[in-house]
Amino acid sequence: MNRFSRILALVMCAAMMFTLLTACGGGDTSGEAAAEKDTFTIALDSDIVKLDPAFAYDFTTNPVVNQITQGLLVFDEDNQLQPMLASSWEQVDDVTYVYQIRDDVTFSDGSAMTMDDVLYSMERIANPDTASYLGWMYDNVASIEQTGDWELTVTLATPDATWQYVPGTTACHVISKAHAEAAGDQLGTPEGGLVGTGPYKFVSWQNGTSVELTRNENYWGEDAGYYDNLTFKIITEDTTRVTALQTGDVDCTVAPPENMLDVIAGDENLSMTTSSGFGVTFLAFNTQKAPFDNAAVRNAIYSAIDLDTIYSSLIKTAGEASTPLPNSAALFGSEVDAWTEYAANAPAHTYDVEAAKAMLAEAGYADGFECNLVINDNSLRNSMALAIQEQLAQVGITVTIEKVSTDEHTAMQFGEVLDANGVRDYDMLMAGWEADYPDPSGNLLPLCQGGNSSNAAAYNNEEVTNLINQQLQISDPVERNNMMFQALDIVMAETPYIYMYYPVKNIAMNAAYEGVTMNASWIWNIHFQDVHPVG
To answer: Quick one: fold of 26-47+188-276+506-533?
Structure first.
C-alpha cells in the first residue's frame, strides 16, 4: 500500500467511525412534530459578516440577509430573472435599462417603500465610501435616475453584457433609508439591525452564536412564511454541525461539509437537495514566480496529477468532474450548444508521469524543485493537497503543504499578502471561485483577466485580457462567444490553473421538512419562507 492509498484508507476509516458514532442519534423527524414547532433552525458554518446587503457576498451572510431584504429582480429555480420589487423591466438600448418599481411594497416596520428608498439603496452600494463588497458591480454605471413616478433608469458608461444580472443580486437589495440614516454607523450590527421588505425581520444577533428572525407581519407579498421564527445557529466545526442535524438540534444546514456528504446521504432521517453550481475548485500557479512563470513547468505538473483518481477516490459526490474549462455546463447560458461543442473539442487532460518528467527536463528542471502549496482549513482540499504532494513527488517535485486560516487564505487569494519582492507570497494555492451570474464569463473574467485581484494565478496575458474586456461590450452572442473561445484557447495552452472539480450545491435537512429550493444561483435566492412540514 503506497502513501496515497494509506491516506485514503485513513479518510474512509474516519468517515465510517463518524457514521457509527452518529447512527444511534436522531431527533423526532415526523411531520407532526415539525408542524407543531414555531421555529425553523438553520446551521451556518461561520458567523455572518454584517446584517447589510452591501456586505452580503458569501455563503453564510446571504442566507440570513436574503430573508430580510429583497432586490429589484430575483433568480428563479432555472436561474432566470423574475420580477421582485420591480414589476417589469426592459433594456432600451445597449446602455439603458428601465425598471418599473412596485408601488405597493412595505418595510417590516410598516412604512411604505418609496423611490427614495430604492435610489438610496443602490447609490449607497455604488458609493466608494460605503466600501461595499458589491460596489464593483456599479463601476460601469453612469447614472441611476428616477424617470417616472415609479420608474427607475440605469444608464451604463459602455455596453456590458453582465449588468442585466446585477438587479437580481444583493447589490440591488432595498433597505429603509429612514432606518439606515437613524442607525448610522450601527447599521447592520447587532445594535443597529436592518429593516427591509422581506418575509422575515431582524430580532437579534449574538456574535458567534446565533441570529434570530421573526415573521414580518407587514410583508407585502402573499406568504410571509410557514414558521413564525427562523434561528440561525453558528456551528463552525464540521462534525458538530452534522451531528446537530442528525440529533434534531438544527433542522437544516446550508453547504454541508463536503467530506460528510456520504454520511448525510446514508441517514434515512435526512434529505439532501443538490444542484450543479457556478463554481470551480482549482490549483493556481503563481505565474509571477519561478519556476511557475514557465508554462512548460505548469503543463508538466498538469500531466503529473492524476485527476481521475482524485475525483473517484476523494471528491466523489462533492462535485462534477472537471474539464479544461473554468466552469461546468451550468454557466453555458443560452448558448448551450456552442459551448457544449467547444468543451467537447477542448484538449482533454492526460495523466502521464513520463511525459511530465520529459517536459520538466526540457524546461531545465530534470531534478525537480521544491515549492509550497497553500490551503485553508477545508478537509477535502487537505486530502487533495496530500494526493498532489504524493503524485508530484514521482516527478521530483517536493511540495510542502502550508495550511492557513480562512481569513489569511482569502487575503492571499486576493493578492493582499506579498513577499519582499512585491509578488504574491505562495507558489501554488488551492482555492475556489463562484461566478456571480449565470454567464459564461462568470469565472473566466475574475480568474484570467490581467490585474484582477481575484486572479489567484496572477496570470497576465494582454491578448487574453483584451478579449475578455471586449466580449463584455458585444451584444451578438455568437461574436461574444467566439471572443471567449479565443481567450480560452490561449489560457488552456498556458495552464495558469488546474481545475480540480466543479462543486455541486447542497442543502441538507431533516426529512420532516421540504420547500427549500437549491440551484446554482442560490447565494442570491436562498429563501426559507416556503419551508413547511412534509405532507
So the answer is: D-Maltodextrin-Binding Protein; domain 2 (3.40.190)
CATH no. for 279-503: 3.10.105.10
What CATH number was assigned to the domain covering residues 53-182?
Answer: 3.90.76.10
- Confirm if 58 and 432 have CB atoms less than 8 A apart: no
CA angle 137-255-443, nearest 5°? 35
The per-residue pLDDT for 406 is 82
- Spatial distance between the Cα atoms of 220 and 372, rounded to a whole number of angstroms: 54
Nearest to 147 by CA among 115, 121, 187, 177: 115
CA atoms of 74 and 509, how far apart (whole Å): 24
Strand locations in 192-257 (E): 200-206, 210-215, 229-234, 252-254
Cβ atoms of 332 and 520 within 8 Å: the answer is no
Amino acid found at 370: E
The separation between the first and the last C-alpha atoms of the chain, rounded to the nearest angstrom, is: 50
Query: Tens of pLDDT along 494-509?
Result: 999 999 999 999 999 9
Note the pTM of the prediction, 2 decimals. Answer: 0.86
Contact 476, 369 (CB under 8 A): no
CA distance 291 to 404: 23
Q: Pinpoint the residues of the chain covered by CATH 3.40.190.10.
A: 26-47+188-276+506-533
> Over 90: is that where the pLDDT of 425 sits?
yes
31 falls in which pLDDT band (50, 70, 90)?
A: low
Q: Say if residue 198's pLDDT is above 50.
A: yes
SS (H, E, C) 445-456: HHHHCCCCCCCC
